[in-house]
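To assess whether the prediction recovers the assembly geometry, we first specified each molecular entity separately, as shown.
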Amino acid sequence: MSEMWINMGPQHPMTHGLWNLRVRIEGEIILDADPEMGYLHRGIEKISEDRHYNEIITLMDRTCYVAGIAWEHLYIQAAEQALHVTPPERAEYIRVLTEEMQRLASHIMWYAAFVQDLGLMSPFLYGMRDRDLLLDIFQSFTGGRLTYEYMRVGGVRNDLPPGTTAQVRQTMDWLMDRFVEYDRLCLGSDIFRRRCDDIGVLKANDCVTYGVTGPMLRAAGVARDLRKDRPYAVYDQLEFDVARADSADVTGRYLVRLQEMRQSVRILRQVVDWLDGHPGPVMAEHVPRWLGAPYAPIGREGYLVKRSYPKGLGFSAIEEPHGEAAAYVVNEGGEHPYRVKFRSPVFVNLSAVKKYLVGYRVADIPPILGSVDVCVGEVDR
Amino acid sequence: MATDELNQRIQQRFPDRGITVEPFEGLAGRVLFPPAAALELFRFLRDDRSFHHLSFVAGVDWKSEREVVYALWSDTERDYLLLSTRVDASDPHLESATSVWPSANWHEREAWEMVGIRFDHHPDLRHLLMPDGYEFHPLLRSFKLHEPEELEVKVRHV
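The predicted structure of the complete assembly is given in tokenized form:
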């Protein structure tokens, strides 16, 4: 049989977003792969050049629509470094609380979508049900379920309302029992194992060469996690283990994410204990008030007040649910950042797609790309 | 890793090449280097200083010059390092880092289409996020999203 190129996408259930995977096949075997990106490019880095520092937070939620608050955390750390602002400790703990809840919500969403790619319908419904409980908590203190706009340069917008920590504890207990069910549904299923074992293998040295990070790297046996290796916020005060597996295949990535969710529960329990015992401010003092103001304030004599601020560079990197995300902010003293750059983990993980697709069959594509956890919003930005 | 130590090693290895290392809060430092030293410096940092992971490549437009920023990560040092070089805007080109870090591929494609910096010896320098044949480089400062509003006010510096 002769070779041919086929398009999987831009509208295909496997893509989880809008992108086109072109694969060259002979019979059932994949010989080459070439992703075409850009269908969801909104120019977030460009729009950011025209916005005030706090207005960019709105864009961050839309960068990755399943892990919005993790991206807020990433951006806000870089912006604070560029603007020379330090947030209070309670705000840092609340940020960790939101980031870990977001990791849980993102991984559960991944679980739901991934098993549906394999044709298992009921785990999808269970996953969506459990994710909703986390979104309820988010809604109780940010007002949003998907796009939160919660963090600010210098802290967070508001403190947690009474009862949130109790709600978190209750939800964590519920989730820990559900993870056992998830495992029973997937790892206990012969069909699941036959479809996922030993496919999409990407070994540790290939991961490092192609810059692949996150659960894909940890599934290959490398325990790199920025929360542990380069603790930001208050992660150095929390106890948790880095999840890893050795098989480097789709099942390995499943195991890593399930383990990671259990570690997130462990972190969240410590965070809510700390939050209960340490009330305090959630916003730094002396944050320039114009940071969030859409219009320039008018001075005493009706003059437009020229804003100036010391120049600075900001860099931050976090362990986002999908892998290593980094931000670089150039502050040239104006009211808008001069340049903002975001490193998306999925962008890099997808650039190595040829490496972990070639040699497998067409029917293996949905489970392999499902295990990558593609979020096109953050790839295209 | 102390910034001073890195600076010492670099000066030993590349004397009089115009490479300087400045401190950067929270990171191993920020290395400023001339474009001609790119590949040698990359190989040195990867092989001798264990910076095996390239995090990103970003282009910044400074009107008369264009800056290329590289972020590296080392598993043994557990630290990031920023590299920065500037090329002239009249003919912005630079040696590609793909021969040292294959992961630079898509980052450089993006930097080329967004900021217009050409990467020599790049294996596959074509559009990534923009459609084929797109003529502009959107992240240049001259690419305006809208005309600036004209305000009839006097400006007072505070």
